[in-house]
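hey can u check if this looks right to u? its 268 residues, i copy pasted from the old doc so theres a chance i mangled smth
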Amino acid sequence: MSKIIQLSDPHIVPEGQIAYGVVDTAAALAATVATINRCLPLVGPVDLAIVTGDLTDFGAPADYARFREIMSALAIPYRVVPGNHDRRANLRASFADQAWMPLTGGINWSIDLPEFGVVCLDTLVEGHHHGHLEADALTFLDEALRSLAGKPVIVGMHHPPFTMGIQSMDINNLRESAALQTLLDAYPGESRLVCGHVHRSVTKAFGSVIGLIAPGTSHSVTLDQRNENPHTLSLEPGGFMLHEWRDGFVSHIIAANFSPDRFPFTTS
C-alpha cells in the first residue's frame, strides 16, 4: 500500500532567531519530525515525505543547512520543492548531493510508487509572493502523466491554483492556471492536487480534481475573510498530512506535536 507524508511551510530562520518575533519554527519542525517517526510504526510503511515549499523564510544557504540538519532525524526519505520564500539557486545547491534534484531549470521531479505516481512542480517566481508554472514545468507534468498512463497520481506544488476567501493569500496564489487544469482534467486516472502556502487545511475542487492545502508545521495564516483584511499569522497547532491509496486516495491530517499517550475507550 503506497503512502506519502506531506509537510509544508517550515519557514526555518537563522539560528538564534524566531520567525516574525513569535514563532520558533525550528522547534516546530523538530517536533513534527519526532511525531512522524513516532507515528510510522502505527501507519507504515511510508514510502517518502514531500515538503511543499517555504523550507526557509529567507532562502540563505545556512538556513537550508539548518533545515537539513533538523530533517536528518526523519526516518524516511524526503524530497522538496520551493515556495515563494525560498531561493532556487541556494535550495538547489543545498540538495546537490541528492539524485532527484535537477541540475538546471525548475525544481520539478517525479517518482513512480507501486500504487501511484508523485509529480512535484516548481511554482517559484523569484522576488514575488505569487506562483506561476513555467513552460518547462507544464511540459514536465505532461510528460510525467503520459508515462504514468492512467496510473493514480498525486501532483504537488507550493501555490494553490484556487481561492479560499483569505484575500491576502488569494492574490498571491498560482496565476494563469488554465493549462494546469487542462492537463489534470484530461488525465484518465485518479488524481489529487496537494499544495501549501496558506499554512492551514483547505479542500476545494479544481476542475475535476480534488485540491488539498496542507497545514504548516508551526503557525497558520489567520482565517480572516473580511474585505481588506490585515495579513496576519495565528499560533494555531501545526500539522502534516498522510496521503495513501486504499482503492482510491485517502488523506489524513495529523497534528504536528501531540502526546504519545494512548487511552482505551473504556472506564472499567
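The longest strand covers residues 239-245.
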